[in-house]
């Protein structure tokens, strides 16, 4: 019963972590972190991501332009690039370590302590990956809210609003955090192997052979 519950917890944790990691990669390259709708021209919409800005027009379609300089970007976009790359790398490493530490994997069945450590380390990396993804998404959202309600900007000037990538990033971050936490809980709930198992069997065999020969075990 406990083994089945632990295996199910590991499967759910790894599935959530994999989903969060994929969505985190999509969030990194999706050019929809911010949306801008023009009241004067409703047929034209602007979107902004970490790498480029796009304009969507009904007649022309979608046109995108990459940012010319990394240093010319706002601070939240520059740091968001670094943190999202870090999140994706930590997530990949955490998935690999957690995969090798699963109970259902037949590799290293005799090294349960080592697999347990791999699972715990993988869960910590996935949890860190989720937090690292939540920080830039929340920071960009916070700056968007501040700019939207900035009274120093005239009301006629269009304001940037939340894009779809922010919501995907939030879901990805929470999925990674929850998946990493489940993997750590599953690893910590695994019972430790008794250290005297390897010595108890030979000792019992020795006692049985001594009884069959009619001699007593001198250690008893």
Mean pLDDT score:
83
Number of helices: 5
Number of strands: 5
Strand content range = 5-15%
Q: SSE order, as H and E?
A: HEEEEHHEHH
Kindly report how far apart the N and C termini lie: 38 Å
Percent range of helical residues = 55-70%
Shape: elongated
Largest sheet: 5 strands, antiparallel
Poorly predicted parts: 193-201, 215-220
Radius of gyration, whole Å = 27 Å
Give the class from helix and strand content and strand pairing. alpha+beta
Strand order of the largest sheet: 4-3-2-1-5
Attribute tags:
220 residues, alpha+beta, five-stranded antiparallel β-sheet, 5 helices, 5 strands, 60% helix
Describe this structure in words.
This protein has helices at 2-29, 75-100, 112-148, 164-188, 197-212, and strands at 34-37, 44-48, 52-57, 61-66, 161-162. By secondary structure, it is an alpha+beta fold. Strand 3 and strand 4 (61-66) form a beta hairpin. The radius of gyration is 27 Å and the shape is elongated.
Question: How would you briefly describe this protein structure?
Answer:
This protein is an alpha+beta fold and 220 residues long. It has 5 helices and 5 strands; from the N terminus they run αββββααβαα. The chain has helices at residues 2-29, 75-100, 112-148, 164-188, 197-212; strands spanning 34-37, 44-48, 52-57, 61-66, 161-162.
């Amino acid at each position: 019963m406990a083994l089945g519950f632990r295996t199910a917890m590991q499967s759910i944790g790894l599935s959530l972590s994999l989903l969060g990691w994929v969505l985190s990669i999509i969030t990194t390259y999706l050019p929809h972190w911010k949306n801008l709708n023009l009241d004067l021209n409703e047929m034209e919409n602007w979107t902004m991501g970490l790498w480029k800005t796009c304009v969507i027009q009904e007649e022309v379609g979608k046109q995108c332009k990459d940012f010319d300089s990394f240093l010319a970007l706002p601070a939240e976009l520059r740091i968001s690039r670094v943190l999202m790359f870090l999140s994706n790398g930590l997530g990949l490493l955490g998935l690999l370590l957690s995969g090798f530490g699963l109970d259902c994997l037949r590799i290293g069945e005799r090294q349960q302590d080592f697999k347990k450590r791999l699972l715990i380390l993988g869960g910590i990396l996935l949890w860190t990956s989720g937090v690292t993804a939540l920080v830039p998404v929340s920071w960009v959202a916070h700056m968007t809210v501040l700019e939207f309600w900035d009274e120093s900007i005239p009301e006629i000037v269009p304001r940037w609003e939340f894009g779809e990538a922010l919501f995907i990033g939030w879901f990805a971050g929470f999925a990674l955090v929850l998946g990493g936490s489940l993997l750590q809980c599953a690893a910590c709930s695994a019972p430790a192997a008794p250290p005297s198992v390897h010595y108890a069997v030979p000792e019992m065999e020795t006692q049985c052979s001594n009884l069959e020969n009619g001699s007593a075990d001198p250690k008893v």
